Amino acid sequence: MPLHVGLLLLAAVASPNEGWIDPSALAEKLKDSAHDLRVIDTRDDVDFNRGHIRESLHMPGTEARHRAFLKRHDVVLLYGQGNPCPAMELAERMRADGFTRVRVLEGGMEAWVAAGQPVEEQQDPSMRQSTSPVMEPGALTARELEALLRCKEVTPVILDLDGEMATALKSAQTKPRVTKTAPKAKEVTWRTPVVVVNATGRGVAEEAARLREQKVGPAVFWLEGGVEAWRMWKQARSSLPPPEKCPGCGTGQ
User: Fold this and answer.
1) DSSP state of 174
2) For 216-244, b where at least 16 C-beta lie within 10 A, e where not — what string?
3) In degrees rounded to 5, what are phi and psi of residue 239?
4) Chain centroid, CA 105 distance in Å
5) What is the DSSP string of 80-143?
6) Along the 253 residues of the chain, how does pLDDT read in single tens digits?
7) Spatial contact of 227 and 198, defined as CB atoms under 8 Å apart
8) Helices (H), ranges, 155-244
9) Which residues contact 19 (CB under 8 A, 6 or more apart)?
10) For the whole prediction, is pTM greater than 0.85?
């Protein structure tokens, strides 16, 4: 399933960690009958119907930005496929629109499920596509990887299967951690995701799935088209719109 890349530009008075809330903290707040939270689930209909947080409001991000009543509440944005960037971008835009109490659920729905938190399914059987809310590993396009490398909120680990990415990054201004050895499970979090790459992109999806099966962690992605596609995109980007801004620094190209 394709992933989109965006940004979270935190307010000047906020530290980066204030833009996130982890599943356990959210669960505790939701237990309080007097809570002032509104969980906004921005996933598509199919994923929402597979499983969602009870009392969450299902709406696209564009709609959430125009719901003025949300300005009176603490808002938690929920996303799906591991990569937080779409929700991060929405949070930044909502802040710019005057929604000052917006956070993003760290790890999204997948982290919520992995933490053993309760999930409610769509009660209409005709709408339920699956009984499992567990997501699959995700692919990153060259453009998405470029923006991810510029993130200050997210520090990816590049699992370079054949050494091609290390060569390609020699002249890069932003140099992430590149390794040929799969990181240990404790090193893989939603803020330090693994991106599996090789020259052509063949076999990387299978390797990402294998790492998940080995319990390395759910935050494992792969680069579509391999380093070749990434190099081609880098060469052509002068004629393309700049990549999305990264969180924190607010820079793009």
Assistant:
1) S
2) bbbbbbbbbbbbbbbbebeeeeeeeeebb
3) -100, 5
4) 10
5) SSS--HHHHHHHHHHHHTT--SEEEETTHHHHHHHTT---B--S-TTT---S--PPPPEEE-HH
6) 333 333 222 222 333 346 889 999 999 999 887 888 899 998 888 888 888 998 888 888 778 888 888 888 899 988 876 567 778 888 888 888 889 899 999 888 888 988 899 998 765 433 333 332 333 457 888 877 877 777 766 788 899 999 888 888 776 666 688 988 888 877 777 778 889 999 998 898 888 888 877 777 667 888 988 988 888 877 776 555 554 544 434 444 4
7) yes
8) 164-168, 204-213, 226-236
9) 8, 10, 88, 91, 102, 103, 104, 153, 247
10) no
Q: Which two tokens stand for residue 137?
A: 């590993």
Residue with tokens 């719901």: 67
The amino acid occupying position 250 is G
CA pair distance 81, 89, nearest whole angstrom? 15
What does the block give as tokens for 157? 């680990």
In the numeric block, which tokens belong to residue 238?
Answer: 């002068």
Query: Would you say how long the chain is, in residues?
Result: 253
Q: In whole angstroms, how large is the CA radius of gyration of the chain?
A: 18
